[in-house]
Amino acid sequence: MIAASPPESAATAEIVVVGAGACGLTAALAARAKGADVVVVERDRVPAGSTALSAGLIPAAATRWQAAAGVSDDADTLFADIMAKSKNTADRVIARAAADAAGPAVTWLADAHGLPFELVDGFVYPGHSARRMHAMPERTGAALVDRLRAAAEAAGVTILTNARAETLYMDGERAAGVGIARPDGEEEAIAARAVVVASNGYGGDKARLARHIPEVLDALWFGHDGNDGLALAWGEALGADLEHLSGHQGHGSVAVPHGILITWAVITGGGVQVDATGHRFSNEAEGYSEQAARVLARPGGLAWSVFDGRLAAVARQFEDFRRAEAEGAIITAPTVADLAARAGLPADALAATLAAVAAHARDGTADAFGRTFAGPPLAAPFAAVKVTGALFHTQGGLATDARARVLRRGVPVANLFAAGGAAVGCSGPSAAGYLSGNGLLTAVAMGYVAGGAAAA
């Protein structure tokens, strides 16, 4: 809801940030670094959001972690990769701003707030020209958001939990604060000089999904329920510009029935996906986001990711994969025939599929889907996991400028900012435009930009 100026009884803050995921907490830290009084309002009891459900990977270029690993990279290359993956449909202003800000943001979070970033080694995600994924040692989004929360608290940021933002106050052409509701129904208002909307997208809003992305309406929802379309509702009521509402991030590898994300590293290193017939059905190397719809289109909306012990060893750097192993989601076998028997797949078909893949890997030739295979052919012990396609979050939202200011009829609202899932990302209008890590790229990089700009 949009309302006029907050009541005289409202509490006050210089900046109110809506949402305490990676985007909101980074924005709060950036604003606090410039001396601003910052209040973050979070609907849940503990800050988590979509960040906590992710692998916590932030693509950033020209960092000291890359330099230490001998990786040559720069913001221009990251920007080019973003645009190439989206086939030049991504918002160029946001893609450029995010590519430029990601490296400085990650470096600042490490230096000023002690976040122990590491460069993810061993593989390169689809569409990236270099190893540039930065993560916490645990390789989880939960670890990332926990450290951001601790940093924000240590920096003097006020975080109000169990505080659901419902109202955006507008004083003419300027944002004037937010109204929140408590679980017991009590309502409060906070007047502010600037508002940063970091409340995420609308993946949990079935009505809006049916309108904008009907193809994923029946997909497994793997996002946070805080993705309820609040930012979009405010934007619609405000008459703000909206962009790429059909854009989204899917994922073609969530273990069934365990509901555990299986890292795409098992695919990029030479693994494949087959359906119930034991045959492949796509070029898996194009990306895990577009693979979600392809998996959902197979019989039963299921597929099997097939890989080997070498790739499982790479995947074990991720806590989710180790948990999947502990819960029995990963099947292993000494031969392809044994693997097929354990998975309930046709042995002859699976053997023929993997033999063809091995031949392409040895010869360096492309298969019928246009995929070439890096690394050696799959070898014993073999492994597989049954997966489905899922929707993680939307990538469209409020249109913003390079300073993360919300646009209305092309003109920035001077003190209303949006970033992360609340704003348009840099993936364009489809799942296929999503470059691995785009979600946390815009959350952290544009959160950093939004917080600094709001404080200014």
Automatic annotation (TrEMBL):
What's the cofactor?
Answer: FAD
Keyword RNA-binding on entry: no
Q: Which UniProt keywords apply?
A: FAD, Flavoprotein, Oxidoreductase
Q: Which residues form the FAD-dependent oxidoreductase 2 FAD-binding domain?
A: 15-440
- The entry's protein name is FAD-dependent oxidoreductase
Biological process, per Gene Ontology: steroid metabolic process
Hey, what's the signal peptide range on this chain? none
Top-level lineage group: Bacteria
Enumerate the GO terms in the molecular function aspect: oxidoreductase activity
